[in-house]
Each structure stands twice: as C-alpha cells, then as structure tokens.
Specification:
- Four copies of one chain form a homotetramer.
- The first copy, chain A, is built from seven helices and 25 strands.
- Chain A has about 350 residues and is an alpha+beta fold.
- Chain A has one domain: Jelly Rolls (Sandwich).
- In chain A, the strands form five sheets. A six-stranded antiparallel sheet of chain A has the order 2-22-19-24-17-16. In chain A, strands 3-4-11-6-9-15 form a six-stranded antiparallel sheet.
- In chain A, β20 and β21 form a beta hairpin.
- The radius of gyration of chain A is 23 Å and the shape is globular.
- The model of chain A has no long low-confidence stretch (mean pLDDT about 95).
- Chains in contact: A-B, A-D, B-C, C-D.
- Chains B and C meet through α5, β14, α6, β16 and β17 of B and α5, β14, α6, β16 and β17 of C.
- β1 of chain C pairs antiparallel with β3 of chain D.
Chain lengths: ~350, ~350, ~350, ~350
C-alpha cells in the first residue's frame, strides 16, 4: 500500500497535520524501517600498519597525554558511518601509543574495553588496583566501571589495540564517566589477577569475595600461543580454521557482556568458507599475511593491519603464504545473542553469492 | 590535554593526515564521547488523545491497508530525535487503527512488539496461528520473528497502542522482515495461548513442546484489573505507587527480551517520589487524569494520552483527581540489565534537583 | 570376574585383612551397586480414605497437639521401605488433622513442605508472618526454613495432605529444625502472598525486596479449577491426559527446589499410555474414581485415596466413570533434573512389558 | 507433646490400627526425624597408605580384572555407615590398582566419577573415545553416562583414587549401568580433551558441537602445581590456607553436577581455623604431613593417606612440618547448593566448641 497511494490534497493535509503533532505515518517508511535483511551503513575497510604507525609516532611527539583528553588514541573510523566515531556500528577500535614514563590518567566509564598488545613491553594497566603488566599478544580487560590507568616502565614506545563497545553504549545513551582523584591508582597488587586466575579451570578460594579483583584480566600471550599451536588439523573449522574464543572461565561466557574476543590461526594454503552473521567484527593481523574477501571486496593484509567486517557481511579468509597467519578479533556477538537476534548463514559452495575480485 | 592544545601547523597537518586515513584522535572528542552522565537526545513529550484520535479517523478514511505499507499506524515521533522515527532512543510507540473487516497482512520481523488495547473489541491478532481476540486493556505480544496479522470481526473501529523495539534493533542493524504468503495465517487455534497459559502459575503439560504456541500471548485486562484492585495501601511503592510488572511466567523475566511492560494504579491524592533510571519509557494513560514532572517540566495528562520519559530523566507522577489513575508503560529496562548498565537514582527530598513548574 | 573367583585361603585372608582396615573390594558387589536399571525398594501402594479418615478422627480425640510432637500427622509408610518413614524413597506424604481452635506450633526446618487441602475451610498456615487461609483444593507452600504454624478459625475439623522431601533431606543429612519462640507467629499480613502474587504473570513492584513474603504461597483451587476446565481435548497429553504443573511464576521452575506438584484431569473413558520415569510420585485422588496400573499391579481408587508410584515404575491411569477424575500429585522430578539423572521411557503399544491384572 | 502422652489402651489400639494400615504417627518420631542439626552417621576416619598399599598389591596378585567385577578397586568404608559401602553418606572413595597390560573393561553408569592419580604413569582412561593418559597428580573426569575403560601402557603398577557419587545416586535410586560391547573403546582421539580445553579461558571453536568430547576431562598436575605455587601469602584463606577449586571452565561450576574437587597447599606452620559445613569431604594427602582435628578427634596424616570429614563436622588442618602439605579433596557441596541446603559455620576463636585431643 501507500507506495502507490495518490497524494490527494486531503492526504497531503493529513500528512501535514500528523507531522505538526510530532507523529508519522508508518506506511510511508515501512520498507525503510523494515528491510528484508540488514544492510550495514558501515562498509568493509582496512587500515594499514604503514599508515597508522607513523601517525602514532607523530602524535607521540606533538600531543601530550593530559586529563581531559585522557589518552593518546587514534581511532579507526568507518568511512560509511559519517561522523559516528565508530569502526563498526557498535565497536570502537583504535591504536593507543604510550611512551616510557607517560601516564594515561585513571578514570572509569560504563563502556567496556579490551586491549590487545601489538608491540612493546613493560607498560601496564592498573585495573581496580591490580597493576597488570602487558606484553605483545596479551589481551587485557577493563570491564565496565572499573578504574583503570596506564603507565610505562619500559624503554621503547608501546602500542596496543583498544576495543570498546563505545558506539553501542553511546547509542544506548548509557555512557557514564568519572575521572579518578589523582592520575594513578595506588596499586593493591601486581599481576594479581594473572596469578590468581591465570588457569581458567582452577578458581582460587580467595576469589569468593572478589571485590577488588574482578576475575581474569590478562590473557597472556605465552599461554595463548601454546594453546593455538597445540590444536591441530582435526580441530579446524570451515569458517575460521583453527580458532579459539577467549572466555570468562567463571561463567563460560564472553570476556565482556557485549564483546567477544577470538584468536585464530590460519594455516598456510587455507582458504576458509564464506559465512555471514548478525554480528560485526574488527580484526587485527597479529602475524602473517593473506587476504579476506568481505561482501565481494578483497583486502590484502599483513602483520599489524586492521580490518572490519560489518554485520551480515559475507567474509572469508585466505593465507597464501608458507607460514601461519594469526588473527585477533573483537566481535559484538554477545549483544545479539542476549536478545535472540543472532543468526548466521553459510555460503553454499558454487551458489555464487560471494563474488570476489580475485 | 588537547582542549588547550595549541593548533600548530604541525598538529594541523597531523590531523589532516589522520583524517585522510579514516582515523580520528580521541583526545579532541573525549568529553563528547564520554560525558559524565547521559543526556538523552530525546526530550520529554506528551501526545494527546484529542490530537491523535481524529488523525486516526482521517487516516481510516483516506488510507487503505495494503501489503507494502502493512499497517495503518501513526507513530509518536520524539521532537528531539530529528528524523529517527522513534519515541525514545530505543522505543517506537504508535497508535494503530483498524476498521471492521479490514486485514493488516501477515508478516514477521525481528523487532519485538506489544499491543495494548485502547478502544474497541473483536479485533484479533493471529500469532503463529493462534487467533487472539483483543479487548480494551489487553496486552498482546508478538515476539520477534513470530508471524502475525490483524483482523477485525467487530462493528466499531478499533485502536490500540503499538510498542516496538524498532529503533533499538534498527540501531543494532538487526532488522529482518518477511511477508507471509497470503494476507492471513490459517488459524491453528483460537485464544489457545490464553486458554493454556492464562494463569501463570500453572503450566500445561502440553506446552512442553510449544513450537506453535510461544507461551502466554494475551494478558487479559479482566485479570489485570482484578489484580490491580486487590493490591492495597500496604503494597504501594514510593516511585510508582501500586504497580505490577507483566512477566513471562515461564522465566520470571520481562515479557520480551528487550521490553518490559508495567501497569500501575496511582491512588487519588498520591504524588510519587522522583527517580531517574538508565531506561526510557513510554506511558499510556489508561484511566484517570493527573500530571507528571519530567526533568523539571510538567505534563498534564488524561485518559488516552501518551507521554515519554527519556533515559536518565527525573520523573514523578501525581493523581490530583478523586479517582484512580491507571498508567500502562513500555520500558527498555531489560536492555540495560542484560549488559549491567542499569542504574537508578532517587531524589532526596529537599535536595532541589527536580525543579518543577508547579 | 570375581563372581566365579575361587575362594582360596589366600583370597579369604585378603578379604579379612581388607575388612579389618575398613575397606571393601568392589568386585564382589559390582552387580549390587551398579544394577542395569533402578529397582526401587519402595513398592506401589494405595491408602484408602476409608482407612485413614477414622484414624484421624480417633487421633483427634486422643492426641493433643503439643510442642515436641508439633503436628497431628499420620504418615503413609511404604511397606517396602522397612522403617524408613517414607512414602517413596524421597517423599513423605501424610494427612494432617486439625480441629477448630487448635494450634500446631510455629517452627521451621530445612525440609520443604506442601499442603494440599482435602476437606474443610478457615484453617490457615502462617508462613513467615503471612496468614494464608486454606480451602479445599488449595495448594499451600512452606519452603525450606520458613517459619510456619497452623491454626483453625472454622467450625469443622480440617484435613489436608502434607508432602515433604523429608526422606531425601534426611538421607542427605541436611535436616535442621528450630522451634519458634511462642506457638504462633504474629501476623504481618493476611493472604498477602495471594493478594500480591495470585496471578503469576503479574509481579508487584513491591516484591522486589521480598524478605517477609517469599512469592506465591497459596495456589487457590478456585483458579486451578477454572484453568483445568478451560483446557480441552486438544490440550491432552498421552500419559497424563489434561495436566498442569504448578510452577513458581518468578522462575518458571518447580514450586520447590526438590518437589514438583501437578494437577490433572482424566476425562471419562480415558486410559492413559504407560510410562516410567526416574522420579517417584504420590497421588491424591481429589475427585472421581478409576484405577491405575503400576508395574503390573492394578489399584482401584476413588475420591480421597492416596497411592504412590516408586521410581522407574511403569504406570498408567484410567477413568472408567462418566465424570472427570482429578488427581493431585507431588513428585521428586526436580531432584533428578538438577543432576542430569532424569529419564523417561514410554511403553510401546503391544510390547508387553506392562502386564496388567485387568 | 506425645513424648509424655500416656499410653492408654485406646491409644495403644490406635497405634496398632495405624500401623496395620501402613501409616505412622509423626508425633512419636518428630525429634528423630527433625533434629536441631545434622549428626552424620558417618564418623571421621583415616585410612593409611601403609595399610591399603600392600592390600592393593596382594589383590593385584590374586584378583584378575574381569567383566562382571569390572575393576580392581578397594573402597574406603566408613565404620559408622554399617554396610552402606560408602566413605561419607554420599561419596564413595577408593583406590584402584592397575598393572601394565591390564584392561578394566569399558562401561558406563549414571554415577559420576573422578580419578586422582597417586602413583605411576602411562595408564589411560578412554572417555567417550578420547584416550586420556594419566600421570601422578592428574585429575581425570568420567561424567555420568560417559563410556570409560582403563588400560596401562607403562611398566609399573599404577594406583589412583576413585571418587564417585555412588552412595548418593544409590540412595536416589538412580543407578543405571551398561557394559560396552567389547572391552575397549576404539580411540577417536588421544588427549584430545587436554589439547582442546587445557586452558580454561580459551574455548576452541570446534567444541561448539562437542558430542564426542565433553569438555575438559584431564586437569594436568603440571599446570595445577604451577598454579598452586604461584599463589602466595596474600591469597590464603583462613579455613583452607591456599586453595583452588577445579572448575568447569565452560560454566564456572563444579567439575561434576554432584561433586566438587579442591586442591590446597598448607604452608609450613599453618594451622587453619575450624569450620563446619553442610557438605562431606574425602581428602587425599598428596604431599607432606600434618594433622587434622575433626569433631574433636585428631588424625595425623602423611603422604598417601586418606581421611573423611562427615557433614556438619568441625574440621581444621595443621602442617607442622617444614615443607608444604598438599591435600586433594572431593566434596559433595554442589548437592546442597543445588537445593539451597548449604550452610557453613566458623568457629569463633576461644568459644571452645572444637575441643581437640592435642
């Protein structure tokens, strides 16, 4: 209906009166509001290490870290999301650059955050008093409303990925923010979370009352790497090859209520099967090189690059090199699972829907 | 930092280069992205029955219900949400107008919907084959992805409130929609949900395999009204007076994964205490008259009116008449509870934060 | 092995030495400890109203209700459970007899209890201060560790069924008991639970902090009866005909953590299909007459009778009269479901396993 | 009441008639059935390595392992539980002895089992096709109804602790047992569970459909030992010193629905505070020596010994040596938590309730 409805004078008058009362007829926007399937405003995109790295260094020279700005962070902005400050519709991904001796002042906020360490060592994040030292490959959590500051006791600049649900919590109008009194939290422990919860299948009796230490905060690369290598051919999956989800070992659920994190190893020569999901993802290329086809567009990637997969977008990955490729990703899957909105669809081989530029 | 950062040529150049690579510096937008507390773009607003009722009637004369437009619905558009087609940031509230013999064709979609019947009888919603007849005061659910169509076997036009999580699911880019083959579903049962699940504390053995009938779909007004009157002075709460939440008796949770529904009776002379919550609400005045103060602005209301409370807005209600006032509301509370984002704050008497226009 | 193991002198000596050290060889008792399937020590049994009713009356004349004995209760003792004070291996079923003006003193204990009212009116159970008046057909809960006393403001003796998980909690060595200071609790409310929670799909806002009132305590017969009649032919199940489970509307789970309660209407002429379950049950014949076959043994029953179905026993029911039969039952199903031990098996027609005495 | 009730002829006659109808008066057994608090029939007891070890060896010489007897197992029988074949009221603890080349034939049963390896290496348990090699200190699970057989590819006899919920499932009349066709399962994998789930905080994508591999089956000592040493003084608890619970990292819950497992390190000189719980435990002394006081009775223990703590028994541990003591324990805590029956009470220092024989 409506689409072909003749716009009589009476109808035009009705529309004007409806509008004047701050109302709107559904029938003129049904197709817009209720499309057959999602078409994300976000577009597939890739950001190169060769681009962001020098920009970080220049920022390091020009921009001090101060209360108010809080962090020296360069965010990846999806070209399709005009001015939304977002990498996908729900995820903020960024690189943060910290130089020896610098302090990113303590604060807390309702958006959840993860860090995935790209380069360097001896920087730390103090989370509710627990000073967690970070090394390349570590995944560090700062769950919603935990105090956190960053510092650096090493000798070389350090760079890591930030992943936040900031666009989501922003859209939900749920952002609260509070600066800490003082730049740094007094440490209550050093790597206490790691010491206590560093093996998920063993829970310390002391953590029955875990006010100060909210479970496992640092998923160490040394452990992750071992695990990734332990899995072999028989553990591979068609869409992600050899893949592990980081989980909260106290619940079996995702690491954060809104964000899941994955690490996957794509073996040399493997080309995964295409799939699309009601979920968006941001990938960081931790090791190796290869390419992904996302909604028919091919992106070549190598170590240090980032790329995003908007929701309900076909995507497949290939490692054409002779070494393993390792991809870290942050995903908003838990958001959709919480409300029963999650779906996935696999590409049937030969059905031609995923047309690539190869 | 940043705020007072002098915009040197080098820095200007850096910003331009960052922008060219589809990146953005956090420090220039920290205060914007991480405010101390939410300030909803939506504003408190009231829509009058005296306004929408004649508009519905005129639409009834001018606009047929057809496939494509799907429904004769006039939505309440929040003046603060420029063009977002939303009543609050997450909720779509609207009135739907159906005349005897008309058919609103069957379809399904991932947004969840509730109907609350304002006037009339003998219209029905068929949900996954169960033909649910609706009367004034009934709350009828069409959970995500259930087939539903409306028809009308009565003699007078019927009007009801629609409440959907459409803006939320839209922001989440999770909308799927599918028209049914044919305008009406063949009925598998008549009021079967009501017959089977009409007393929440008794679950039929037959519903152990409830493919066709997804639990309780129609919360009948006759039962609700009795319950509302059974509660007395000792059951009153400071913020909502005598209030009941409609729940899913198979889980104890909200009626839909994203939406909670409430009915409350405000006794004559009662003026509730002000509170604000990380949650938005749309109220329908089912009976009586009174006023609410929302973020310092007073709205007088009477039977048939609608008004909204944006998230984190102070609100309080008063019934100044000599009869009960009954308010129905739909709320997005479950969204925030799912992610640990829910908060509430009560106004301390005399602390002067809620300044009213009385 | 072992079964045919020759009992040499050496082996005899080993067994003696093992025994002396308070140890035991598994291999001699494997078949005893690990049978192919359960064979309950409890046996199917029926207790007649014509028997227990006069016994109750005589007890009413001879036995006062006093602190220490606490209740005038006659329990149904399964003949197979030599001296265990149990109706099935986990369930204690009994009749309690209270005369006008009598008081069964207040106490609390960790075993959970239900009452199902057989005859009379105006007696009450006060549960954590809420004075719940009871009428024929009402199901009244006293969850673990809630204070409860009984009194009687009517004019005729009152009799009800008690159902407790006492044998289970006894076997688990988890019984705690505490007498109240004084015989009666001071009432905090009258039928408050019923008033607040009497429609499961509506939860009062006041019950968000429900210290004194633990949810729905009285499932009124007037409501249950209506619901039972509302269900019709299309709602019947093969094993229980038209059946409803009483549920906790705040969780969707059983009324008590260890006990489920059911009410079922067997239509005239219906003979249900046989089934066995890892669960035991005690039935009370609330209305009508018929018979059940339990593990090949037929029991004719009529109004007021009780009978039990031990675990993993085939059972089927028949109503050969021209009126509805109504059976109430208490079941230990939740115990087995909690640990993944629940199973059921349906009799294939004609497979001859259930041989009846018809 | 009742206790002092005069046994008149009429009352005697009533009791006889009640008994003849397979009923029983509560009032005569109220104190017996509803004691103020639990007094376990089980008694604290200790079994010495020096006793069981030679008995195992003699059984190894005299008793072959055959279908029917199934396992060469010597169980610890609590002297207080006359003939119940149980270590506590719910737990069966035992030692199993397997020689190189022997096979304990494949079967499955509804009781859950754990193994904790005391001595030896290169024996294996195949669980649903996954061949799990076992070494000293490993904890290996065979959850309810999983196929399992044991074999031994090493050169020395191997001995391990068996812990089952057999007395519980027996009391619940829920035991099912089925022998496998053939003595050994064909292996589907080798240490697959360990490879896939050996780091609880990383879940392989492949395990989303884990029919053949039910999660983590082998908690390797090498990992546990590291973790136990990583915890330090600030991680100690008053009742268990430095303690870890083995958990199911996919749920955060206990390793089995009915059984929890703990490992604890008691530092030299530490004497823990006394506590009692509604839960029973069986301890194995993995390393070191010391003593425990259980309900006022002192038990000296050293490596290889076993001792039990009946439910609601005061217990405290002391390490008087100059080396760490390590205790493994299996506990029935989950049973009581499932039904809300769990309680604990700590001894107030100086209140004299725990009177020891020191």
């Amino acid at each position: 209906m409506a689409v072909e409805l003749e716009l009589t004078e009476e109808l035009r008058k009705l529309y004007a009166d409806v509008d004047a009362k701050h109302m709107a007829p559904l029938w003129n926007v049904t197709a817009q509001l209720l499309p057959r399937e999602p078409a994300s405003k976000a577009i597939p995109w890739l950001w190169r290490r060769d681009d962001y790295w020098p920009l970080c260094q220049r920022a390091g020279e020009l921009v001090p870290i101060e209360r108010g700005g809080e962090r020296r962070v360069l965010a990846f902005i999806n070209p399709g999301l005009e001015g939304k400050y977002a990498t996908t519709h729900t995820i903020w991904a960024a690189v943060q650059y910290l130089q020896p001796g610098e302090i990113a002042p303590a604060h807390r906020h309702t958006p959840n955050a993860i860090r995935f360490i790209i380069e360097g060592s001896r920087a730390f994040t103090t989370v509710n008093g627990d000073k967690c030292f970070m090394e390349r490959g570590d995944l560090v959590l700062t769950p919603a409303w935990t105090w956190h500051d960053h510092g650096h006791e090493g000798s070389e600049p350090m760079i890591w990925m930030d992943g936040l649900d900031l666009p989501l919590v922003g859209d939900l109008e749920g952002v609260f923010f509070e600066p800490f009194k003082g730049d740094r939290q007094p440490p209550l422990g050093i790597n206490a979370s790691e010491r206590r919860h560093g093996l998920g299948q063993l829970r310390p009796a002391i953590s029955a009352a875990p006010e100060a230490y909210p479970g496992l905060l640092n998923y160490k690369w040394s452990q992750t790497a071992t695990r990734l290598q332990t899995l072999g051919d028989e553990d591979a999956t068609p869409y992600d090859d050899i893949a592990l989800e980081y989980v909260n070992p106290h619940t079996g659920g995702p690491v954060l209520p809104t964000l899941a994190c994955w690490i996957q190893r794509i073996r040399p020569g493997i080309h995964t099967r295409a799939r699309r999901q009601v979920a968006s993802k941001v990938y960081h290329v931790f090791e190796g090189e290869g390419w992904s086809v996302i909604n028919g567009r091919r992106f070549n990637w190598k170590q240090g690059d980032f790329f995003c997969v908007p929701t309900w977008s076909w995507h497949e990955h290939a490692n054409t090199s002779s070494h393993d490729a390792v991809l870290f990703s942050v995903q908003d899957t838990p958001v959709f699972q919480a409300f029963g909105l999650y779906r996935e669809e696999a590409l049937q081989s030969g059905d031609g829907r995923q047309i690539t530029a190869r």
